[in-house]
Amino acid sequence: MNQLAVTESDLHAYVDDLLGDARSKEVAVWLAARPEEQARINAYREQNEGLRALFNPVLNEVVPPRLTAALENRASWFSPSYLRLVAGLLIAVVSGAGGWMLHGATQTNMLAAVKNSNGQVVLTGFARQAAIAHGVYTPDVRHPVEIGADQEDQLVTWLSKRTGADMHPPKLGKLGYELVGGRLLPGESGSPVAQFMYQEAGGQRLTLYVSTDQAQNKDTGFRFAQQGTVNVFYWIDGKFGYALSGGVNKGELAKIAHAVYEQLDNKPQ
Amino acid sequence: MQDERDRLIACIPRLRRYARALISDRTGADDLVQDTMERGWKKLSSWQSGSDMRAWLFGIMHNLHIDQVRRPAIATEVLDDDTLMPMFKATQTDALEMRDLQSALATLPAEQREILLLVALEEMSYIEVAATLGLPLGTVMSRLSRARQKLRAHMEGRVVVSSLKVVK
Q1: B155 touches chain A (CB under 8 A)
Q2: Model-level pTM greater than 0.80?
Q3: Does residue A118 have a pLDDT over 60?
Q4: I need a surface site. Which of A73, A195, B56, B134 has the fewest CB within 10 A?
Protein backbone atom coordinates (compact mmCIF):
# COMPACT_ATOMS: atom_id res chain seq x y z
CA MET A 1 0.00 0.00 0.00
CA ASN A 2 1.35 3.34 -0.98
CA GLN A 3 0.86 5.63 2.02
CA LEU A 4 1.18 9.35 1.99
CA ALA A 5 3.58 10.76 4.54
CA VAL A 6 1.91 11.67 7.82
CA THR A 7 2.19 15.39 8.40
CA GLU A 8 1.76 17.46 11.53
CA SER A 9 -1.58 18.63 10.12
CA ASP A 10 -2.67 15.02 9.73
CA LEU A 11 -1.86 14.37 13.36
CA HIS A 12 -3.98 17.29 14.52
CA ALA A 13 -6.81 16.26 12.24
CA TYR A 14 -6.51 12.80 13.73
CA VAL A 15 -6.80 14.23 17.23
CA ASP A 16 -9.87 16.18 16.18
CA ASP A 17 -11.53 13.33 14.25
CA LEU A 18 -11.39 15.33 11.07
CA LEU A 19 -9.82 12.58 8.95
CA GLY A 20 -11.78 10.07 6.97
CA ASP A 21 -11.84 6.49 8.24
CA ALA A 22 -9.24 5.24 5.81
CA ARG A 23 -6.74 7.98 6.51
CA SER A 24 -7.43 7.75 10.19
CA LYS A 25 -6.46 4.09 10.17
CA GLU A 26 -3.27 4.87 8.32
CA VAL A 27 -2.32 7.45 10.91
CA ALA A 28 -3.13 5.01 13.72
CA VAL A 29 -0.79 2.48 12.19
CA TRP A 30 1.87 5.13 11.76
CA LEU A 31 1.52 6.16 15.40
CA ALA A 32 1.62 2.60 16.69
CA ALA A 33 5.20 2.39 15.53
CA ARG A 34 6.14 5.67 17.20
CA PRO A 35 5.42 5.62 20.94
CA GLU A 36 6.59 9.17 21.54
CA GLU A 37 4.30 10.59 18.90
CA GLN A 38 1.52 8.36 20.20
CA ALA A 39 1.99 9.79 23.67
CA ARG A 40 1.89 13.31 22.31
CA ILE A 41 -1.29 12.64 20.36
CA ASN A 42 -2.89 11.02 23.39
CA ALA A 43 -2.05 14.10 25.42
CA TYR A 44 -3.68 16.31 22.78
CA ARG A 45 -6.83 14.21 22.86
CA GLU A 46 -6.91 14.52 26.60
CA GLN A 47 -6.65 18.26 26.21
CA ASN A 48 -9.75 18.26 24.04
CA GLU A 49 -11.62 16.09 26.50
CA GLY A 50 -10.46 18.18 29.42
CA LEU A 51 -11.54 21.41 27.77
CA ARG A 52 -14.97 20.00 27.01
CA ALA A 53 -15.35 18.70 30.54
CA LEU A 54 -14.36 22.09 31.87
CA PHE A 55 -16.52 24.28 29.71
CA ASN A 56 -19.43 22.22 28.39
CA PRO A 57 -21.36 22.79 31.63
CA VAL A 58 -21.61 26.45 30.61
CA LEU A 59 -23.99 25.31 27.88
CA ASN A 60 -26.52 24.34 30.51
CA GLU A 61 -26.30 27.47 32.61
CA VAL A 62 -29.20 29.87 32.66
CA VAL A 63 -28.47 32.74 30.30
CA PRO A 64 -28.43 36.08 32.14
CA PRO A 65 -31.15 38.38 30.75
CA ARG A 66 -28.69 41.11 29.92
CA LEU A 67 -27.28 39.00 27.12
CA THR A 68 -30.51 39.16 25.20
CA ALA A 69 -31.33 42.74 26.20
CA ALA A 70 -29.97 44.02 22.89
CA LEU A 71 -32.60 41.98 21.08
CA GLU A 72 -35.43 43.54 23.00
CA ASN A 73 -36.96 46.76 21.84
CA ARG A 74 -35.43 48.79 24.55
CA ALA A 75 -32.22 50.67 25.01
CA SER A 76 -29.55 49.05 27.05
CA TRP A 77 -27.41 51.85 28.29
CA PHE A 78 -25.62 49.56 30.67
CA SER A 79 -24.09 47.64 27.85
CA PRO A 80 -20.34 47.52 28.17
CA SER A 81 -19.91 48.69 24.60
CA TYR A 82 -21.79 51.90 25.30
CA LEU A 83 -19.74 52.55 28.39
CA ARG A 84 -16.58 51.97 26.49
CA LEU A 85 -17.80 54.12 23.63
CA VAL A 86 -18.21 57.05 25.92
CA ALA A 87 -14.92 56.34 27.67
CA GLY A 88 -13.26 56.09 24.28
CA LEU A 89 -14.68 59.39 23.15
CA LEU A 90 -13.37 61.05 26.27
CA ILE A 91 -9.94 59.61 25.77
CA ALA A 92 -9.97 60.62 22.12
CA VAL A 93 -10.90 64.19 22.98
CA VAL A 94 -8.31 64.50 25.69
CA SER A 95 -5.46 62.96 23.77
CA GLY A 96 -6.33 64.81 20.59
CA ALA A 97 -6.22 68.16 22.24
CA GLY A 98 -2.55 68.15 23.12
CA GLY A 99 -0.42 68.94 26.10
CA TRP A 100 -2.03 72.17 27.22
CA MET A 101 -5.08 70.16 28.00
CA LEU A 102 -3.31 68.24 30.71
CA HIS A 103 -3.13 71.36 32.72
CA GLY A 104 -6.81 71.88 32.19
CA ALA A 105 -7.59 68.31 33.06
CA THR A 106 -6.01 68.57 36.46
CA GLN A 107 -8.31 71.44 37.13
CA THR A 108 -11.38 69.65 35.93
CA ASN A 109 -12.84 69.93 39.34
CA MET A 110 -12.31 73.64 39.47
CA LEU A 111 -13.45 74.57 36.03
CA ALA A 112 -15.79 73.04 33.56
CA ALA A 113 -13.95 74.65 30.67
CA VAL A 114 -10.52 76.00 29.82
CA LYS A 115 -9.20 78.17 27.03
CA ASN A 116 -7.04 76.44 24.48
CA SER A 117 -4.10 77.97 22.66
CA ASN A 118 -6.46 79.58 20.13
CA GLY A 119 -8.33 81.34 22.88
CA GLN A 120 -11.45 79.20 22.38
CA VAL A 121 -13.26 77.95 25.41
CA VAL A 122 -13.04 74.20 25.51
CA LEU A 123 -15.13 72.08 27.79
CA THR A 124 -13.69 69.86 30.44
CA GLY A 125 -15.19 67.87 33.24
CA PHE A 126 -18.89 67.37 33.60
CA ALA A 127 -19.81 69.91 30.94
CA ARG A 128 -17.84 68.05 28.35
CA GLN A 129 -19.36 64.76 29.38
CA ALA A 130 -22.72 66.41 28.99
CA ALA A 131 -21.86 67.52 25.46
CA ILE A 132 -20.58 64.07 24.58
CA ALA A 133 -23.65 62.36 25.99
CA HIS A 134 -25.76 64.83 24.03
CA GLY A 135 -23.94 63.85 20.86
CA VAL A 136 -24.33 60.16 21.56
CA TYR A 137 -28.02 60.07 22.42
CA THR A 138 -29.86 62.83 20.61
CA PRO A 139 -29.39 61.35 17.12
CA ASP A 140 -30.84 58.06 18.30
CA VAL A 141 -34.21 57.64 16.72
CA ARG A 142 -35.36 54.48 18.43
CA HIS A 143 -33.73 54.64 21.84
CA PRO A 144 -33.00 58.24 22.72
CA VAL A 145 -34.00 57.68 26.35
CA GLU A 146 -34.32 54.80 28.77
CA ILE A 147 -37.62 55.85 30.23
CA GLY A 148 -40.02 57.97 28.22
CA ALA A 149 -42.03 61.00 29.28
CA ASP A 150 -45.16 58.84 29.27
CA GLN A 151 -43.76 57.29 32.44
CA GLU A 152 -42.50 60.48 33.98
CA ASP A 153 -43.31 59.43 37.54
CA GLN A 154 -41.30 56.31 37.18
CA LEU A 155 -38.48 58.27 35.58
CA VAL A 156 -38.40 60.76 38.47
CA THR A 157 -38.51 58.05 41.11
CA TRP A 158 -35.79 56.03 39.48
CA LEU A 159 -33.39 58.87 38.72
CA SER A 160 -33.93 60.41 42.15
CA LYS A 161 -33.20 57.13 43.81
CA ARG A 162 -30.10 56.41 41.80
CA THR A 163 -28.59 59.89 41.99
CA GLY A 164 -29.65 60.41 45.58
CA ALA A 165 -31.22 63.77 44.78
CA ASP A 166 -34.57 65.10 43.74
CA MET A 167 -34.59 64.78 39.95
CA HIS A 168 -37.62 66.46 38.48
CA PRO A 169 -37.30 67.43 34.85
CA PRO A 170 -38.07 71.13 34.38
CA LYS A 171 -41.07 71.93 32.19
CA LEU A 172 -40.09 73.68 28.99
CA GLY A 173 -43.37 73.37 27.11
CA LYS A 174 -43.86 77.12 27.08
CA LEU A 175 -40.66 77.43 25.13
CA GLY A 176 -41.80 74.74 22.71
CA TYR A 177 -39.80 71.86 24.14
CA GLU A 178 -41.51 68.75 25.42
CA LEU A 179 -39.86 66.13 27.56
CA VAL A 180 -38.89 63.01 25.64
CA GLY A 181 -37.63 61.16 28.72
CA GLY A 182 -34.41 60.53 30.51
CA ARG A 183 -31.62 58.17 31.29
CA LEU A 184 -28.95 57.44 33.84
CA LEU A 185 -25.30 57.90 32.89
CA PRO A 186 -22.03 57.36 34.72
CA GLY A 187 -20.57 60.64 35.96
CA GLU A 188 -16.97 61.73 36.30
CA SER A 189 -16.44 60.16 39.67
CA GLY A 190 -18.54 57.16 38.77
CA SER A 191 -21.60 58.41 40.60
CA PRO A 192 -24.75 58.36 38.51
CA VAL A 193 -25.79 61.36 36.49
CA ALA A 194 -29.23 62.11 35.05
CA GLN A 195 -29.85 63.17 31.50
CA PHE A 196 -33.21 64.56 30.42
CA MET A 197 -34.04 64.98 26.78
CA TYR A 198 -36.44 67.48 25.22
CA GLN A 199 -37.67 67.90 21.72
CA GLU A 200 -39.47 70.68 19.87
CA ALA A 201 -41.95 70.27 17.05
CA GLY A 202 -39.25 70.67 14.40
CA GLY A 203 -37.33 67.72 15.85
CA GLN A 204 -34.59 69.81 17.47
CA ARG A 205 -33.41 68.12 20.65
CA LEU A 206 -31.94 69.46 23.86
CA THR A 207 -30.47 67.60 26.78
CA LEU A 208 -30.17 68.64 30.37
CA TYR A 209 -27.41 66.86 32.19
CA VAL A 210 -27.49 66.91 35.98
CA SER A 211 -24.45 65.82 37.95
CA THR A 212 -24.47 65.55 41.73
CA ASP A 213 -20.76 65.31 42.43
CA GLN A 214 -19.67 68.93 42.07
CA ALA A 215 -19.54 69.61 45.82
CA GLN A 216 -15.81 70.27 45.71
CA ASN A 217 -16.26 72.92 43.03
CA LYS A 218 -17.07 76.56 43.35
CA ASP A 219 -20.46 77.74 42.28
CA THR A 220 -20.48 79.41 38.93
CA GLY A 221 -22.82 81.66 37.05
CA PHE A 222 -23.95 80.66 33.60
CA ARG A 223 -21.10 79.68 31.38
CA PHE A 224 -21.27 79.07 27.69
CA ALA A 225 -19.06 76.87 25.54
CA GLN A 226 -19.13 75.05 22.28
CA GLN A 227 -18.06 71.56 21.55
CA GLY A 228 -18.20 70.93 17.83
CA THR A 229 -21.70 71.82 16.76
CA VAL A 230 -23.09 71.45 20.26
CA ASN A 231 -23.66 74.60 22.30
CA VAL A 232 -23.61 74.16 26.05
CA PHE A 233 -24.74 76.35 28.91
CA TYR A 234 -23.59 75.08 32.24
CA TRP A 235 -23.42 76.13 35.83
CA ILE A 236 -22.60 74.71 39.22
CA ASP A 237 -24.89 75.17 42.15
CA GLY A 238 -23.80 73.51 45.38
CA LYS A 239 -23.17 69.87 44.68
CA PHE A 240 -25.12 70.07 41.44
CA GLY A 241 -23.63 70.62 38.04
CA TYR A 242 -26.09 71.44 35.27
CA ALA A 243 -25.36 71.44 31.57
CA LEU A 244 -27.90 72.25 28.90
CA SER A 245 -26.75 71.13 25.47
CA GLY A 246 -28.27 71.68 22.07
CA GLY A 247 -27.68 72.57 18.48
CA VAL A 248 -29.68 75.78 18.77
CA ASN A 249 -28.02 79.19 18.83
CA LYS A 250 -26.60 80.76 21.91
CA GLY A 251 -29.46 83.20 22.42
CA GLU A 252 -32.17 80.60 22.36
CA LEU A 253 -30.19 78.23 24.51
CA ALA A 254 -29.59 80.99 27.05
CA LYS A 255 -33.33 81.61 27.26
CA ILE A 256 -34.01 77.94 27.89
CA ALA A 257 -31.16 77.68 30.38
CA HIS A 258 -32.71 80.53 32.27
CA ALA A 259 -36.07 78.80 32.37
CA VAL A 260 -34.40 75.66 33.63
CA TYR A 261 -32.50 77.57 36.25
CA GLU A 262 -35.60 79.30 37.55
CA GLN A 263 -37.53 76.11 37.95
CA LEU A 264 -34.68 74.41 39.73
CA ASP A 265 -34.27 77.38 41.97
CA ASN A 266 -37.91 77.24 42.95
CA LYS A 267 -37.44 73.73 44.09
CA PRO A 268 -35.06 73.65 47.03
CA GLN A 269 -33.19 70.36 46.97
CA MET B 1 -36.78 39.04 11.91
CA GLN B 2 -38.29 36.88 14.64
CA ASP B 3 -36.68 33.87 13.10
CA GLU B 4 -33.27 35.52 13.01
CA ARG B 5 -33.70 36.73 16.54
CA ASP B 6 -34.38 33.17 17.66
CA ARG B 7 -31.36 31.96 15.81
CA LEU B 8 -29.19 34.57 17.50
CA ILE B 9 -30.51 33.58 20.89
CA ALA B 10 -29.92 29.93 20.14
CA CYS B 11 -26.21 30.68 19.66
CA ILE B 12 -25.79 32.28 23.09
CA PRO B 13 -24.92 29.16 25.11
CA ARG B 14 -22.13 28.27 22.70
CA LEU B 15 -20.84 31.84 22.62
CA ARG B 16 -20.83 31.85 26.41
CA ARG B 17 -18.95 28.58 26.62
CA TYR B 18 -16.32 29.87 24.25
CA ALA B 19 -16.08 33.27 25.93
CA ARG B 20 -15.75 31.67 29.36
CA ALA B 21 -12.83 29.62 28.11
CA LEU B 22 -11.29 32.58 26.32
CA ILE B 23 -11.53 34.99 29.22
CA SER B 24 -11.34 33.33 32.57
CA ASP B 25 -13.51 35.76 34.47
CA ARG B 26 -17.21 35.23 34.24
CA THR B 27 -18.29 38.85 34.06
CA GLY B 28 -15.80 39.75 31.36
CA ALA B 29 -16.89 36.71 29.37
CA ASP B 30 -20.56 37.65 29.55
CA ASP B 31 -19.69 41.25 28.67
CA LEU B 32 -18.10 39.93 25.52
CA VAL B 33 -21.16 37.83 24.69
CA GLN B 34 -23.42 40.80 25.32
CA ASP B 35 -21.35 42.99 23.02
CA THR B 36 -21.39 40.26 20.42
CA MET B 37 -25.17 39.99 20.55
CA GLU B 38 -25.53 43.74 20.24
CA ARG B 39 -23.17 43.98 17.32
CA GLY B 40 -24.76 40.93 15.70
CA TRP B 41 -28.24 42.35 16.11
CA LYS B 42 -27.22 45.69 14.63
CA LYS B 43 -25.36 44.12 11.75
CA LEU B 44 -27.84 41.41 11.03
CA SER B 45 -28.08 42.69 7.48
CA SER B 46 -24.45 41.71 6.89
CA TRP B 47 -25.20 38.13 7.76
CA GLN B 48 -26.04 36.20 4.64
CA SER B 49 -29.14 34.22 5.12
CA GLY B 50 -28.39 30.56 4.71
CA SER B 51 -24.78 30.89 5.78
CA ASP B 52 -23.53 29.63 9.13
CA MET B 53 -24.73 32.12 11.72
CA ARG B 54 -22.61 30.54 14.42
CA ALA B 55 -19.38 31.11 12.48
CA TRP B 56 -20.47 34.66 11.68
CA LEU B 57 -21.08 35.39 15.36
CA PHE B 58 -17.80 33.85 16.42
CA GLY B 59 -16.12 36.10 13.88
CA ILE B 60 -17.81 39.13 15.47
CA MET B 61 -16.77 37.98 18.90
CA HIS B 62 -13.21 37.50 17.73
CA ASN B 63 -13.04 41.07 16.42
CA LEU B 64 -14.54 42.48 19.59
CA HIS B 65 -12.10 40.53 21.68
CA ILE B 66 -9.15 41.81 19.68
CA ASP B 67 -10.40 45.35 20.17
CA GLN B 68 -10.68 44.73 23.88
CA VAL B 69 -7.24 43.24 24.19
CA ARG B 70 -5.74 46.24 22.43
CA ARG B 71 -7.68 48.69 24.50
CA PRO B 72 -7.04 49.28 28.19
CA ALA B 73 -9.68 47.18 29.83
CA ILE B 74 -12.27 48.45 32.20
CA ALA B 75 -11.30 46.59 35.31
CA THR B 76 -13.66 43.81 36.20
CA GLU B 77 -13.63 42.22 39.55
CA VAL B 78 -13.93 38.59 40.32
CA LEU B 79 -16.63 38.42 42.93
CA ASP B 80 -15.71 35.27 44.77
CA ASP B 81 -13.82 32.04 44.36
CA ASP B 82 -16.75 30.35 42.73
CA THR B 83 -16.63 32.69 39.79
CA LEU B 84 -13.11 31.64 38.94
CA MET B 85 -14.15 28.23 37.80
CA PRO B 86 -17.15 27.06 35.91
CA MET B 87 -18.96 24.19 37.54
CA PHE B 88 -17.82 20.92 36.15
CA LYS B 89 -18.19 17.27 36.76
CA ALA B 90 -14.88 15.54 37.07
CA THR B 91 -14.87 12.50 34.82
CA GLN B 92 -11.68 10.67 34.05
CA THR B 93 -9.51 13.49 35.18
CA ASP B 94 -9.63 14.75 38.69
CA ALA B 95 -10.47 18.25 39.83
CA LEU B 96 -6.90 19.23 40.39
CA GLU B 97 -5.97 18.40 36.86
CA MET B 98 -8.90 20.40 35.59
CA ARG B 99 -7.72 23.40 37.49
CA ASP B 100 -4.29 22.91 36.00
CA LEU B 101 -5.77 22.75 32.55
CA GLN B 102 -7.61 25.98 33.06
CA SER B 103 -4.57 27.79 34.36
CA ALA B 104 -2.47 26.32 31.57
CA LEU B 105 -5.03 27.56 29.08
CA ALA B 106 -4.72 31.04 30.49
CA THR B 107 -0.99 31.06 29.82
CA LEU B 108 -1.51 30.64 26.08
CA PRO B 109 -1.39 33.75 23.92
CA ALA B 110 -4.95 34.74 22.99
CA GLU B 111 -4.39 34.05 19.31
CA GLN B 112 -3.43 30.46 20.09
CA ARG B 113 -6.08 29.96 22.72
CA GLU B 114 -8.96 30.99 20.49
CA ILE B 115 -7.94 28.55 17.78
CA LEU B 116 -7.62 25.67 20.20
CA LEU B 117 -11.02 26.48 21.66
CA LEU B 118 -12.79 26.74 18.33
CA VAL B 119 -11.37 23.35 17.45
CA ALA B 120 -11.85 21.61 20.78
CA LEU B 121 -15.13 23.13 21.95
CA GLU B 122 -16.87 24.21 18.78
CA GLU B 123 -15.44 21.29 16.85
CA MET B 124 -14.87 23.50 13.84
CA SER B 125 -12.84 22.23 10.93
CA TYR B 126 -9.56 24.04 10.34
CA ILE B 127 -10.98 25.70 7.27
CA GLU B 128 -13.95 26.98 9.28
CA VAL B 129 -11.58 28.33 11.91
CA ALA B 130 -9.51 30.07 9.23
CA ALA B 131 -12.65 31.62 7.72
CA THR B 132 -14.05 32.67 11.09
CA LEU B 133 -10.85 34.35 12.21
CA GLY B 134 -9.84 35.63 8.80
CA LEU B 135 -6.52 33.82 8.89
CA PRO B 136 -4.63 31.69 6.36
CA LEU B 137 -4.99 27.97 7.00
CA GLY B 138 -1.24 27.62 7.56
CA THR B 139 -1.38 30.15 10.38
CA VAL B 140 -4.25 28.30 12.00
CA MET B 141 -2.33 25.04 11.86
CA SER B 142 0.89 26.42 13.24
CA ARG B 143 -0.89 28.22 16.09
CA LEU B 144 -2.90 25.14 16.92
CA SER B 145 0.26 23.11 17.01
CA ARG B 146 2.03 25.58 19.27
CA ALA B 147 -0.99 25.85 21.55
CA ARG B 148 -1.17 22.11 22.10
CA GLN B 149 2.55 21.80 22.57
CA LYS B 150 2.62 24.55 25.14
CA LEU B 151 -0.42 23.24 26.97
CA ARG B 152 1.10 19.78 27.18
CA ALA B 153 4.39 21.11 28.46
CA HIS B 154 2.51 23.08 31.07
CA MET B 155 0.43 20.12 32.15
CA GLU B 156 3.48 17.95 32.47
CA GLY B 157 5.26 20.55 34.51
CA ARG B 158 7.82 21.29 31.87
CA VAL B 159 7.26 24.98 31.82
CA VAL B 160 10.57 26.56 31.10
CA VAL B 161 9.50 29.90 29.75
CA SER B 162 9.38 32.48 32.49
CA SER B 163 5.99 34.07 32.83
CA LEU B 164 7.52 37.08 34.51
CA LYS B 165 7.49 40.20 32.48
CA VAL B 166 9.71 43.17 32.97
CA VAL B 167 7.65 46.22 33.64
CA LYS B 168 9.34 49.25 32.17
Answers
A1: yes
A2: no
A3: no
A4: A73
B92–A contact, CB cutoff 8 A: yes
pLDDT in tens, A2-24: 567 899 999 999 999 999 899 99
| B88-159 maps to CATH 1.10.10.10 | yes
Whether the CB of B39 is below 8 Å from some CB of chain A: the reply is: yes
Domain boundaries, chain A: 8-60, 73-265
Instruction: Assign domain A73-265 to its CATH architecture.
Output: 2-Layer Sandwich (3.30)
Residue spans per domain, chain B? 1-87, 88-159
Q: Give the per-residue SS3 of chain B.
A: CHHHHHHHHHHHHHHHHHHHHHCCCHHHHHHHHHHHHHHHHHCHHHCCCCCCHHHHHHHHHHHHHHHHHHCCCCCCCCCCHHHHCCCCCCCCCCHHHHHHHHHHHHHCCHHHHHHHHHHHCCCCCHHHHHHHHCCCHHHHHHHHHHHHHHHHHHHCCCCCCCCCCCCC
pLDDT digits (tens, 9 = 90+) for B39-56: 998 888 778 777 788 889
CATH architecture of B1-87: Orthogonal Bundle (1.10)
Residues of chain A whose beta carbon is less than 8 angstroms from a beta carbon of chain B are 8-9, 12-13, 15-16, 18, 40, 43-44, 46-61, 63-64, 66-71, 76, 79-81, 83-84, 87-88
